[in-house]
């Protein structure tokens, strides 16, 4: 079997289609915040995979990564992720088995999901949490500062107060049996992250996610010295090397790689195995795309040290028609897909019919003094 064509499909996301001379086609996803750049990088990587055997997934991953002079980063990570995902889809279809069987089979019979809630007040976000919990969802992720995002403002002290207020309200609304995941989006300076951790400790969150920026893992040492609340980070990791210090130096309790950003199925399995050696569990980040979601379900079913995975759609029966069928969800758990490859059919016609949104411009956050703040 040989690869005869590689094309990108942009449909409110970046999807890669790989065609073979035996008529088997695979689809992958590399959606991120810079879609045009990802599409350009897929074009740059084409010469390394055209004419090659798609079954040689590891070889082709290495070719796409190591034959570049400048390696790593979000653009390359997403482009390789999309190509890699499509290759696994082809292999599964060629062998008529789901991808999770190729990864060693089911490590679990179902995977627990966590849902998302938002709100611009403690009352609103608590009501949304109660509604989600009533549907059987047992883990809920939330953050504050949606209201200040709308006016391009971030103030550490104000955000800390709001997140403590939200956490108290959500815990009161859902009780102690629902796990709370406090998302910080890398917003805080270390001192304010400590202040937040001290303020929410009595509400016992499952973990705090990305309290500070990820670029300097040593900065987490200062944070860890002041709290026993578990810490999660890693959605901004783009290959195994980005996770080394977090794992080896014991900075985190949960890693958060995204299969659409970190180098695909091939790489996320390696990241998880690396973490397993150090007794660190994995909670896959999910960027919400339909193929990325399917791939996330497969790896979450097959990798042993996965605790739960992100599923913002956990209370939605069918959030998109671009792929069918959508994963079966019961009481906050996703069940194994049954079809070969990724277990879904990608509908190019529906994808092409979706009105294209402009490239997303992220909030231009400033502090009260007009200085730039992190999004």
Instruction: Give the amount of beta strand, in percent.
Output: 5-15%
Task: Output the structural class.
Answer: alpha/beta
Shape label: globular
Termini Cα gap? 44 Å
The helix content is 25-40%
- Strand tally is 15
Counting structural domains, the number is 2
Mean model confidence by pLDDT: 94
* Helix run count: 13
CATH topology of the largest domain: TIM Barrel
Largest sheet: 10 strands, mixed
CATH architecture of the largest domain: Alpha-Beta Barrel
Top-tier CATH class of the largest domain: Alpha Beta
Low-confidence stretches: none
Backbone CA Rg = 20 Å
CATH superfamily of the largest domain: Enolase-like C-terminal domain
EC number: 4.2.1.6
GO molecular function, one term: galactonate dehydratase activity
Enzyme class: lyase
Keywords: Lyase, Metal-binding
Q: How would you characterize the overall build of this protein?
A:
- By secondary structure, this protein is of the alpha/beta class.
- The chain folds into two domains: 3-97, 2-Layer Sandwich (Enolase-like, domain 1); 101-342, TIM Barrel, CATH 3.20.20.
- The chain has 13 helices and 15 strands.
- The chain has helices at 35-45, 57-66, 74-95, 99-102, 122-134, 146-149, 156-174, 190-200, 219-224, 244-248, 264-277, 290-302, 348-353; strands at residues 3-10, 14-20, 25-29, 111-116, 139-142, 179-183, 207-209, 231-233, 254-255, 281-282, 309-310, 323-324, 329-330, 333-334, 345-346.
- The strands form three sheets. Strands 4, 5, 6, 7, 8, 9, 10, 11, 13 and 14 form a ten-stranded mixed sheet that branches. It has a three-stranded antiparallel sheet with strand order 1-2-3.
- Helix 7 (156-174) runs parallel beside helix 8.
- It starts with a strand and ends in a 22-residue tail after the last helix.
- The mean pLDDT is 94.
């Amino acid at each position: 079997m040989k690869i005869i064509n590689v094309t990108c499909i942009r449909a409110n996301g970046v999807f890669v289609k790989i065609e073979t001379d035996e008529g088997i086609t695979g689809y992958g996803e590399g959606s991120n915040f810079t879609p045009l750049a990802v599409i350009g990088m897929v074009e740059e990587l084409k010469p390394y995979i055209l004419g090659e055997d798609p079954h040689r997934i590891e070889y082709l991953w290495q070719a796409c990564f190591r034959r570049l002079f400048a390696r790593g980063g979000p653009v390359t990570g997403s482009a390789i992720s999309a190509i890699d995902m499509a290759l696994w889809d082809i292999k599964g279809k060629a062998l008529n088995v789901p991808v999770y069987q190729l990864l060693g089979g089911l490590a679990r019979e179902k995977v627990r999901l966590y849902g998302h809630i938002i709100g611009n007040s403690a009352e609103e976000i608590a009501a949304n949490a109660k509604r989600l919990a009533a549907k059987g969802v047992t883990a809920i992720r939330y953050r504050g500062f949606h209201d200040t995002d709308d006016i391009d403002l971030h103030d550490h002290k104000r955000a800390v107060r709001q997140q403590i207020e939200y956490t108290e309200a959500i815990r009161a609304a859902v009780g102690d049996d629902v796990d709370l995941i406090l998302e910080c989006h890398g917003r805080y300076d270390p001192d304010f992250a400590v202040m937040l951790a001290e303020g929410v400790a009595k509400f016992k969150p499952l973990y705090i996610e990305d309290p500070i920026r990820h670029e300097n893992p040593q900065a987490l040492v200062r944070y860890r010295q002041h709290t026993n609340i578990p810490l999660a980070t890693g959605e901004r990791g783009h290959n195994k090397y980005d996770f080394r210090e977090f794992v080896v130096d014991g900075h985190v309790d949960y890693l958060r790689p995204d299969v659409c950003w970190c180098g695909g199925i091939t790489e996320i399995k390696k990241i998880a195995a690396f973490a397993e050696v150090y007794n660190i569990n994995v909670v896959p980040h999910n960027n919400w795309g339909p193929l990325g979601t399917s791939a996330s379900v497969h790896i979450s079913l097959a990798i042993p040290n996965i605790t739960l995975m992100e599923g913002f759609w956990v209370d939605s029966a069918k959030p998109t028609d671009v792929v069918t069928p959508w994963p079966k969800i019961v009481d906050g758990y996703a069940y194994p897909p049954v079809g070969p490859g990724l277990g879904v059919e990608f509908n190019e016609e529906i994808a092409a019919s979706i009105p294209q949104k402009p490239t997303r411009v992220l909030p231009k956050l400033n502090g009260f003094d007009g200085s730039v703040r992190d999004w």
